[in-house]
Amino acid sequence: MSLTFDSARIPNPHLTEDHLAWRDALRRFVDKEIMPYAEDWDEAGHIPIALWPKAAEVGLLGAGYPEQYGGMETDSWHSWIINEELSRVGVGGLSASLMVHGIGLPPVINWGTEAMKAEIAPPVLRGESWISLGITEPGGGSDVASLQTTAVRDGDHYIVNGSKTYITGGMRANYVSTAVRTGGDGATGVSMLLIPTDAEGFSRTALDKKMGWWASDTATLYFDNVRVPVSNLIGQENQGFRVIMTNFNSERMGMAAAMEAFGRVCLEEAVNWARERQTFGKRLADHQVIRHKIAMMKQKLNATQAYIRICYEAIEVGEANAGDIALLKVQASEVMEFCAREAMQILGGVGYMRGNRVERIYREVRVNAIGGGSEEIMRDLASRQYGL
Question: How far apart are CA 244 and CA 235, in angstroms?
């Protein structure tokens, strides 16, 4: 058996003919509309606006959202396939930007008013409008309960002051699902507001000098006496922390699935090079130390795939465990880092040069390990979930 991106995927008994057809459709789309241009987009630091309507047409943007807003019913296995197929490209910033509505829109869908859903969701799912999530601030990221951006009630409006940073899709977003402080200190004083980016007093600057996610438009957002209608409140006032926490599970599952797939890309590239490259009169693959590196990559990827499947199985029956999902994210980031490093060692100088998937993925390791909850925070969250 040849070790490729596909053959290194362990069997999943939950996949049906519908799931396989979904993978085929996404692969055709990615191979035609993304793969030939991905390297150029990464170097340019952005992806073209025309890609969003194309992604909407194939069903990529609407997967998992209600049909009444232009979405389509899917399950966890469809989501896993999405993350696999986009990660196969080897450009992390591409999927982060293209699918940023996956973290910005769920608060609206799950907690927003019917009027809000009807106004915001359809154009986003058609690829005609963009929505981001605004949580992290210059003064803190993982410590969400201590956020400082304020929203003070003034009649039928909130007046918002403060800033957010490292916001994925922030330069393009028309709306930002934003965490603000409407009450006292701590988690019980946090609310979520839908803030339009054309509001007076809103401004933003690009964060375009990054280690990874080059193709993702990342921004710092500024709110200077921005007036936001009270009707833009997502959920109940001072209940925003619950909105934020329920959003994290799906984000972390998506990141874990993507990181495992990035690791599999590294495995495929390492195997191909090890078979072609000649050193000391024989193939790299004929050196025991190289075979052991590849075997360890496959071993760790197998375990991570099994862990992903277990967590998705729990989600499918309504028994998601936040602690298990947090540790899965740690597992996946560690495996992605291991595979990127070992693939880089096997490729040697060619892996160090720009223009190959391993080099790009190597740059994406830290943003995946930190974004959505750092490894240290995830372990601590899990220990508290387990009652320690």
Answer: 11
